[in-house]
Records
---
Amino acid sequence: GQQVMQIPQYQHVQEGEDFTTYCNSSTTLSNIQWYKQRPGGHPVFLIQLVKSGEVKKQKRLTFQFGEAKKNSSLHITATQTTDVGTYFCAGPPRSNYQLIWGAGTKLIIKP
Amino acid sequence: DAGVIQSPRHEVTEMGQEVTLRCKPISGHNSLFWYRQTMMRGLELLIYFNNNVPIDDSGMPEDRFSAKMPNASFSTLKIQPSEPRDSAVYFCASTEGPLGSYNSPLHFGNGTRLTVT
């Protein structure tokens, strides 16, 4: 079936290091959305990418949507403690309306 | 705007009991979703309503689960009878308009943490 693979499952970084999570879809997506879930919280929408090859930035966060609209990445520069949480990608395949969710990447800041 | 409101925040119940979770979507949002989140299975879509009509309930685990949306500002998810494997965080989310090739972002409520003993 249609699925979105997200890696890595966990990433431990020192504060100030960079962080990247990748999503790969088995099918072409109409768009890709990114959400952040803090520990004990609920998913919060970050951004949506629609165009092939699109790149968007939000301060230290950079989001990319692949040319084939099947993969995406989120890169955080110089992580801070406020970045801790799980980052999810989600997107609808062209043939369907339903969002397919990645399993999430948990960002952990080493003490 | 108050956002999506869910109640209760926590529910602890014994196996076999009926559980009712409640959701108030953001005013003006036409689509409402019930999701379940567990460590093992991640986020699972249970049911999707558009304009108060259930569009897709293929994610509802079994007949013990039922959902209603009697009006645009209220929805319930009921589990009867509950079982320990139903323990999870249940999220309600809403968005503007129907889903299509260009999806509006989902706005999630704070969730209900259900524990069935």
Note: The radius of gyration of chain B is 13 Å.
---
Amino acid sequence: GQQLNQSPQSMFIQEGEDVSMNCTSSSIFNTWLWYKQDPGEGPVLLIALYKAGELTSNGRLTAQFGITRKDSFLNISASIPSDVGIYFCAGHNGGSQGNLIFGKGTKLSVKP
Amino acid sequence: DTGVSQNPRHKITKRGQNVTFRCDPISEHNRLYWYRQTLGQGPEFLTYFQNEAQLEKSRLLSDRFSAERPKGSFSTLEIQRTEQGDSAMYLCASSRPAVGTGELFFGEGSRLTVL
């Protein structure tokens, strides 16, 4: 089946640093999304991307839909302790609007 | 929005028992989804309802699993004859009509442990 490869799997950063993570696939997706999950909670949508090449920001977060439609990246600028959590990329290319393929996540830990 | 509500939050059961989880979506959301998440993995799609109609089912949804949304509001997910491999977090999500693909609101999940 389709798989999304997220990297890195985990990262430790100093507060105030910028963070970059990405997601790749061997298949084309029509939609890319980024979700964040805190311990004991469900995922929360951060950014949705609908067009190849699209660059979208949400506060300190910026994400891009790759031109090839097979990748996406998420940047977090000036990280703060509450950025800790697991970040998931998700793609959609068919089926119902909620039938998403999720990556395995990037676990972000911030040193205060 | 009061958020997507799921219960129970935790369930421990013995292998072979039946379990049922309930999901109450955000009130104006007509679309409802069930996902399963195991440790260290992302959520995996199980099934989708639009109003009371179950429109899509993943091959992950074996014949021991059944989901219903009888009046187009809350939904239940039942697992019969549970197996240890069913241990996971079961997430429910909902979305509004005419919203962008994949823009889901997730509940906090129901964690199942099968002994």
Note: The mean pLDDT of chain B is 94.
---
Amino acid sequence: DGGITQSPKYLFRKEGQNVTLSCEQNLNHDAMYWYRQDPGQGLRLIYYSQIVNDFQKGDIAEGYSVSREKKESFPLTVTSAQKNPTAFYLCASSIRTGNPYEQYFGPGTRLTVT
Amino acid sequence: EDKVVQSPLSLVVHEGDTVTLNCSYEVTNFRSLLWYKQEKKAPTFLFMLTSSGIEKKSGRLSSILDKKELFSILNITATQTGDSAVYLCAVPTQGGSEKLVFGKGTKLTVNP
């Protein structure tokens, strides 16, 4: 079964701790993305990567970091510098040719920081 | 700045009703507009529209784009409780061919 997996589904952390969210895809997609979704809000882009070992900041990158060492994996670290980390985080991927704008989403990770 | 505005933000209807969801956009270099359905977790792709006036249809869902007036509508006929979801509209931004900017979504609730 091809798809995108995110783990864990729910994550609880204390303020001041860094936390890493996992995102893996076996769709052979080149591009991967991280979005944040807050209640009543649309998706906001945190970081994206179009190719291995390369990534760009999205609209709300402050307080987050990513790596793209493998095509299949795009982990997101929420650092203690992120002022309001509690949110629903969605990972997505897309191919770079054909229909690049159709992004496939993972099931999401709900992060709660207290 | 590229942006997408959806209306209404929420909508409650009864099964069997027909609904129209709206999406207006401002983007420097328009290429396409996408609709997604988000039920509980992952948004799922519904339609991609690139040309004005050509309706895309999938079962009871249909969508059309007006590039002159810069908006799109998503119609759902004979609604069912399973249509209850947040419907998201998005457009690719100028910054990169794969970057999408999303609207806030329309939360549709279909009551039996």
Note: The mean pLDDT of chain B is 92.
---
Amino acid sequence: DTGVSQDPRHKITKRGQNVTFRCDPISEHNRLYWYRQTLGQGPEFLTYFQNEAQLEKSRLLSDRFSAERPKGSFSTLEIQRTEQGDSAMYLCASSSTLIAGVYNEQFFGPGTRLTVL
Amino acid sequence: EDQVTQSPEALRLQEGESSSLNCSYTVSGLRGLFWYRQDPGKGPEFLFTLYSAGEEKEKERLKATLTKKESFLHITAPKPEDSATYLCAVQAPSGGSYIPTFGRGTSLIVHP
């Protein structure tokens, strides 16, 4: 078990550019979550997948954000036309679900820190 | 309106000085309350899951408890290595689905 990995760990971009982040969950986990965290705040839910299906997306999530999880394995989060307000830590987490309606703990990756200049 | 409120925002303790962190929630239909520890620049690390009122979990110097309105994380005789931000999260209904909602965390500093 190598844990959840994220790539890159740091990304600096200019306003208006597109960026893409990758998350590799723990292999046997069927659920994958994306969060955004700013300084002094808890992680803010963005979206989650069960296998390859995207089941929920935050109402606060701009149309500039899109996520995919092809084949139910790794996931990517893309931000188009980045803005300075997108600067944050982007966290990925995975969990296993053996019983419907039972929510287990999430295992987080180290995060990708995005800085938009 | 925050669904999950953690207090205090920051806490400074001397090594060995026991204390408690609070997580109060206003959601209904709770499907799990989770405690995580987060070190600076890292992702949260799972500590405990509590599913029903009255449940308690322990791990080393930490003990988590749950009532119908709040959860406490008790730290007994803390050490400097316990310094971190402690996050509480609830899994509750939101628009037909269950999404996790985190509090803002309690920043704990333990002085030697």
Note: The interface with chain A takes residues 4, 31-32, 34, 36, 41-46, 49, 87, 89, 91, 94-95, 97-105 of chain B (CB under 8 Å).
